[in-house]
Records
---
Amino acid sequence: MSTKHELILRYIEGLAVGEKISVRQVAKALSVSDGTAYRAIKEAENQKLVNTIERVGTIRIEKKKKENIERLTYAEVINIVDGLVLGGRGGLHKTLTKFVIGAMQLDDMMRYIDAGSLLIVGNRLKAHETALLAGAAVLVTGGFDATDEVKKLADELELPVISTSYDTFTVATMLNRAIYDQLIEKEILLVEDILTPLSETITLSTKDQVAHFNEVNAQTAHSGYPVIEKSGKLVGIITSRDAVGKSDTELISKVMTQRLITVTGKTSVASAGHSMIWEGIDLLPVVTDSGALEGIISRQDVLKALQSAQRQPQQGETIDDIVKKQMKVVEGPPQSIEFTVIPQMTNQFGSLSYGALTTLLTEAGNRVIKTHKRGESVPENMTLYFIKHVQLGSIVTVEPRILHMSRRFVKVDFDIFTEGELVAKAMFMYQMFER
C-alpha cells in the first residue's frame, strides 16, 4: 500500500505541465494535512517535477531528461535573474533553445530569433512585440516595463515577458553560468542511471524458506537478494554467507541481514562505490524515501560506470578538471608528474592551495597504482604538509612512490619539488576496488 507521500507525488506527476499548485489545493484534493502536502511538494521540487517562483507560485514543470539538462525553462530564468513576470505566465514551463541579445537594429535582430528563443533587450517596445510574434519570449533588462498590448499578446501566445533590474551583460553572464553548471551536472553519474530496476530484480519474501533461497541461488549464482514485505518495503538482504549451514526449513526472515546499507536513485555512483568498498559489500539496494525497493546496483555495475565515465568528454569543467589539465607525465625513472601553478590553484595568499595539491596527488597516485595493478582505487586517508609555500607560476614536480601494496590497500608516498627543492610531502592510503 502506498504512503500519503507517494500518493501526493503521483498526483503531482499527473497534473498538466504549466498548471499551478498550492499546499491548500493538494491537501483538499487528497484529504491530507497541510504539513503532509507541503513536505510532498518540497520533495516534488527536489525531483524537478515543480518549480516555485517568487511572486508567481508553484507550477508543474516538465521533468528534464538527462540528455536535455542543459536547457533552461523560463521558470528557471526568473529565479536566476530575480525577474518579475509581466505577461505569459502560462508558458513558464517551456524550455528555451537559445538566448539572443538585442544589441542591433530590429531587422538584423530578427534574423537570429526563432520559436523557443529568449530575446534579452532593454526598453525597445517594438522589439518586444516582434519577438513574441516570432515565437520567442522576452527578457526586459534595466527594470523597464512592457506595454499593455505586449502583455496581452504574451498571455494569448503563452510566451513569458519577464522584467529584471539587471543590465543586459550581467543577465547574459548569469544565464551562461547556469547553463554551464547544468552541463557539469549532466556528466555526474547517478545511481538511477545504472540501477537494475525492480521489474528485473529477483526478490525474496520474509515468508520464504532457506530452501527456496538455495534453489534460486543455484539457478542465478547472484551474490545476494533483497528481501521485501508484501507492501514492497525493503526489510533485509540475504546472501550465501547468511544461509550457509542453516536448515532448509528456516525462514529467510530469521537468517537475513536486517541492518542494511542502502542508497537512493539520486546518490552519485562514486559515493555508492565508496560505500561498497568501505563496507566490503557487492550489492546495494536502491530505495525510495519511504523505504520501498526501487532496484539494485552491483559492484560490477559501478565499475563499468566509472570506467565508461572516464572515456567520456567532460562538457562542463569543474575545478578538478581545470587542475588536472595542468598535469604532464614525465617519463622516468622515477615516473613523475609536472604541473604549473595557475591562478585557479591558489589560495587567498597567492600560493598553491591544499585543495588543488590534494587533487593533483590523488590523480598522480591513481596513475602510479594502475601501472602495477588493475582496477579502480579510492583514497581512504591522507597526510599532507607544506615545507615551503609554492608561489603562483611555479613549476612543480611530484614523485609518487608505492611503499606497500596488498590485495585491498596501497600506501603511496609523495615528494613534491620546485626547482629541485623539496617543498611538500604526503602519504596517501588507497583502497582497491576490484571485480
Note: The radius of gyration is 28 Å.
---
Amino acid sequence: MRIATWNVNSVRQRLDHLLTWLKETSPDIACLQEIKCLDDAFPREPIEALGYNVVTHGQKTFNGVALLSRLPFDEVQPGLAGDPDDVHARFLEGIVSVKGGSLRVACLYLPNGNPPDTDKYPYKLKWMSRLLEYSKKHLQAEEQFILAGDFNVIPQPRDVHNPAAWASDALFLPTTRERFQALLDLGLTDALRAVTDEPGQYTFWDYQAGAWPKNNGIRIDHLLLSPQASDRLTAVGIDRHVRAWEKPSDHVPVWIDLDLDAA
C-alpha cells in the first residue's frame, strides 16, 4: 500500500501536475496540502475519474487539505482538537479498512510561524502541542496511524542545504525542532530517516534565488508512523523530478510503501 503527501500549492493551478503524478506514482492514499480553495471549488471530478474517493477541508485563498483514497473512507474528521477558535483549514483525518484492521491517516499543514517575533510563532507552537496530544491519544490506543504532510519543520542540520541561512527561521529554531523531536520521543517514526541517514533528502526548494538549480533545499514534508505502521514500512521515496516540471509547486511529493501482510 502506497501513501503519499504533497503540498501542491494551489490544486487548481497544479491540477495537470497532480493528475500526471497520480497516474505515474499510483498512491493508494494521497494527502494534499495548500489546496487553496473552498470545498465546492475543489476539482474532484477528474480525480474521482482515476478511481479516488475525495474528501476536503478547504479554505478560500489560503491553507486547505485534502485526502484522496482508492479505498472507501470509514470515517473522516476535519480539524485538530484543542482550540475551538482555530478556523484555519489545516488538518483532516480519514480511516480506511485494511487487512487485519484499520488505518488512520491524518493529513496536516502545520503553521509556518514566520516571522518568529510575531503572534504567528506562538500559534505554531500551540498547534504543535495540540498535535502532540492527538498523537499521544492514538499511540496509547495502539492504532496503526500516520501523520503525513507539510510540517514546516526542518528536523536536523542534515535536512537543510545551508543551516546557517535558516538559523533564525521559525522552521529551524531550536524550540520548533524540540517540539518535532517530542513527537518522535512519543514513539513515532520519521519514515525517511528509518531507511536512510543520507543528507540532502530535500522536499522543498524556494522559488527565489535559484534554489532549485543550486539544490538549495530543505526537508519539511514528513510521514510519521506509529509503531504498528512502521513495522510494515518497506520503502520511502521523494519524487524530486516533479520540481523540474513547468510552473511547479515549490514542494515535491513524498511517499511510503507499507506491507500490510507483514506480521
Note: Residues 6 and 41 are 19 Å apart (CA to CA).
---
Amino acid sequence: MKIDILTLFPNMFNGVLGESILKKAQEKEKVSFQVVNFRDYTDNKHQKVDDYPYGGGAGMVLMPQPIFDAVEDLTTQTDSTPKVILLCPQGEKFTQQKAESLAKEEHLIFICGHYEGYDERIREHLNPDEISIGDFVLTGGELAAMVISDSVVRLLPGVLGNEDSPVLDSHSTGLLEHPHYTRPANFRGMTVPDVLLSGNHMHIAEWREKESLRRTFKRRPDLLENYKLSPKQEKWLEEIKLDEK
C-alpha cells in the first residue's frame, strides 16, 4: 500500500511513522508513506494556502489550488487509482469496518485540513471520502490521519506477527474483545479463571465468546442493536442480564 499525507505540518508525523507497527510495516515493505507539505504546491508568491471566506465570517479557509495540484501530482506517481480521504468533523464516523474497507485499497491520499475548513470545491470535485474520528474538533487533520493510518496498516497481510490478531480485535467481530490474563495465575490473591488453565480449547473458546458478549453488554450496549445474535448468544445474553441485575 502507498499512503500519501497532505499536510502543512509534516514534522508532526516523524515520531508516529518511525515507531512500532508502522515502522515495522515499512521495513517489511508492506506500506510506504510520503508526507507532503501542500504549501509547496501553491502558485501564490507568498506561499499562501488559505484566504478569507466569501460572504465574511470567522477564520480562514483552505484554497482549492494547492490541494488540487498536489492530489493531481500524486495521482500521476502511481498506476493505481487513489482513494482520497478528506479529514473533517463533518465526515462519516470512522469505524473498524471502514478500516477494513480502506485496507483493501492500493493507494490512499489523506488531506489534513486546518484553519476554518475547506473550499467547498475540494469536496465537490475531488470526490473524497470524508471521514471523522469522532464528534469533536481538532486543530487539524494530522492526528486523525495518524489514527486512521495505524488502524488500516495493521490490517495489511503480513504486518502483524499473528494473522489472527486483527480478526479477533474489539469491533472486528462486532463485539468488544474478551478479557485477557497472563502469568502469574495468582497475583495478590487475584486468580485467573479456571477455564483458561484447563487446556480445553473448546471450553476456552466458548468462555471467551460469552465474556465478549458480557463486556459488550456492560460497556457498549449500543453495539448490540445491529448485531445479529445466534440462538446460543441470545441464551447467554439473557443469563448475563440476570447476572448483572
Note: The CA atoms of residues 20 and 150 lie 10 Å apart.
---
Amino acid sequence: MPDLYDVAAIGNAIVDVIAPADDAFLAANSLDKGAMMLVDEARSAELYGKMAKGVETSGGSAGNTIAGVASFGGKAAYLGKVADDKLGETYIRDMRAIGAHFEPTPLVGGPATAVSMINVTPDAQRTMCTYLGASVRFTDADVTPAVIEGARIVYLEGYLFDAEAARKAFAKAAALARGSGRMLALTLSDGFVVDRHRDGLLGFIETQVDLVFANEVEIKSLFQTDSFEAAMGEIVLRAKMAAVTRSEQGSVVATNAETYAVPAFPVEKVVDTTGAGDQYAAGFMFGLARGRSLPDCARLGSLAAAEVISHYGPRPQVSLQTLAEEKGLL
C-alpha cells in the first residue's frame, strides 16, 4: 500500500482546559502536584468550576503529537473516540483544521467527550485531572485498516492501556502495522500508567513495538531501577529503538548498536511543560519518517518541545516547519 501518512496515531481524544494555579490551590483540592489523576464526571465538573480562567483546546497526548507532525509539514492521521456532542464536534473540527485525517464515528447515548483539566503552577509543573468519558470507548472497530496500513509510523498512546477495549484495539493496530511492514511506536505516557500496567506494557513492547518513547522517570519505573543507564540497557533488549527525554538535559536515543545524547534547545522562560513529550515525539517521528539520522530526529524533537514549553497549551503556536528551517534542521 502507498505511503499516505508519515504518522498515524491512536489516542484518547480529550479537550484540554489549561489554567494557572498555585500550590495552595492544589493542596486545597487534594491534587498531587505533577501527577495525572483520573476523575469521574462529577469531580470533573467540580474542579472545572473552581479553576482559574484558562485556555480550552483540543488535546490528548497523541492528538497533540499529530498536531506537531502536521506543523512540521508532515502528513498525519488520527484515530480516537469522541461523543456526539458540542465538544466532540469541536475536536473533529480542530483536528481537520490542522490538516490531519480524522474521520471518527461519534459515540451516541454514552458518556460525554473527554476533558482534562490541567493546572499549571509557576514552576511550570502540570497537574492533570482527566475525565476520560467517551475516549475510553475506543475499540478495535474504530481501528481503520487503511489508515494503519498507509502510515510509515503507527504511534500508540500509553494512556489507553487503562481501557481493556483499547488494548484490544492496540493489538489489532499492531497486527495491521506488522502485516504491512510499518513501524510501531509506543509512548509510555506517564509513570502512573507504567506502575499500573508494567507487565502488560513489557509484554507488548517485547512482542510488538519497534520504537519506545518515554521520559527518564517512566523508563526507570518500567524496569524498577534508579539507574538511567541500566534502564536504557534493558529497553534496547526489548525494542529496536528508544528515545528518552531528560528535561533540561535533552534526550538520549539508543538502539542495541548505538547511543546518542542530544542536548535540549535553550528556552528563555519555561511557561508550561504540558505537551513537551508529545511534541518531542512529533519532531522525532517526522524526522524518522523523512529518513533523517537519529541525532537529527532528536534535534527536531527537542526543537518542538522547546517551542511548546515557552507558552501555555500543548500544541505549537508557530509553524514548526518554519522554525526548523530557520535553525537549519530542514
Note: The chain has one domain: 5-13+60-105+136-326.
